[in-house]
């Protein structure tokens, strides 16, 4: 079991480090355009770890507003292409995490068949978390374009603080996973500076501050898309873990 998990996590690391090219944006469910047949085969094989029918949720859908699309295209146009090395790489995003759950064989099977990644578990497009994450070429920064949906209401007309924390954990966690999968959040420290109007598109940006052995210190800011308004700031500590840590429960 531990060996299998280790192989899966190694595959995940190769997966996130694959040299994705610009994706085909025209269709909501468009798949990534791949540089080589080898890349395509690798990604298809790895995608089967997530779901038999993997849909990449970080591609545009009909619920995305103008600002979301504009920023998606802005960063996507700076992604690695056939003829030039772009500054950014888009991270694909599925509705299942790795097929693993503790709790005994019976419970594991139930959980594994029903488990859904928290941020991708609502079917109605635009109802909750719509987001796409891009990572910089040197992997020191991530930027996420996030559009909040009506199910995320906290204070009237504004985004719930827990939903904001979820997005911060997701962006910093994805960032840490790219640098050193598998990881777990050890500490998340959040300062809410100004409320986010429900339905708005905002930027969630993370930055690697330092690495110390197994520890990754990452800071994060949530701002309006023009950068003029600071909504939230956070610092996070991730620890890279051995897969046996997950088996201990
Ligand atoms: C679930 C698996 C995830 C795997 C991810 C892989 C692929 C993911 C795929 C896609 C990624 C996409 C999206 C990612 C989205 C979201 C990410 C969500 C992540 C989470 O949502 S995850 C759930 C919440 N998370 C927990 O449920 C953690 C519970 N917890 C523990 O599991 C342990 O607590 C652990 C592992 C954290 C540490 O345990 P440990 O035994 O490995 O390490 P130990 O305690 O020995 O500490 C070693 C050194 O870290 C220092 N240290 C430890 N904790 C500290 C703290 N809080 N503050 C300051 N320093 C701390 C010590 O002081 C020592 O420092 P020093 O060495 O200097 O003395």
UniProtKB/TrEMBL annotation:
Entry membrane topology: Peripheral membrane protein
E.C. code: 3.1.2.2
CC per GO annotation: mitochondrial inner membrane; mitochondrial intermembrane space; ruffle membrane
SUPFAM superfamilies referenced in this protein's UniProt entry, alphabetically: Thioesterase/thiol ester dehydrase-isomerase
Any GO molecular function: hydrolase activity
Keywords: Apoptosis, Cell membrane, Cell projection, Cytoplasm, Fatty acid metabolism, Hydrolase, Lipid metabolism, Membrane, Mitochondrion, Mitochondrion inner membrane, Transit peptide
Annotated localization: Cell projection, Ruffle membrane; Cytoplasm; Mitochondrion inner membrane; Mitochondrion intermembrane space
Pfam families assigned: 4HBT (PF03061)
Catalytic activity, as annotated: (5Z,8Z,11Z,14Z)-eicosatetraenoyl-CoA + H2O = (5Z,8Z,11Z,14Z)-eicosatetraenoate + CoA + H(+); tetradecanoyl-CoA + H2O = tetradecanoate + CoA + H(+); hexadecanoyl-CoA + H2O = hexadecanoate + CoA + H(+); decanoyl-CoA + H2O = decanoate + CoA + H(+)
Domain Thioesterase residue range list: 157-228
Enzyme class, spelled out: hydrolase
GO terms, biological process: apoptotic process; fatty acid metabolic process
Family note: Belongs to the THEM4/THEM5 thioesterase family.
Protein name: Acyl-coenzyme A thioesterase THEM4
Species this chain originates from: Menidia menidia
Organism taxonomic ancestry: Eukaryota, Metazoa, Chordata, Craniata, Vertebrata
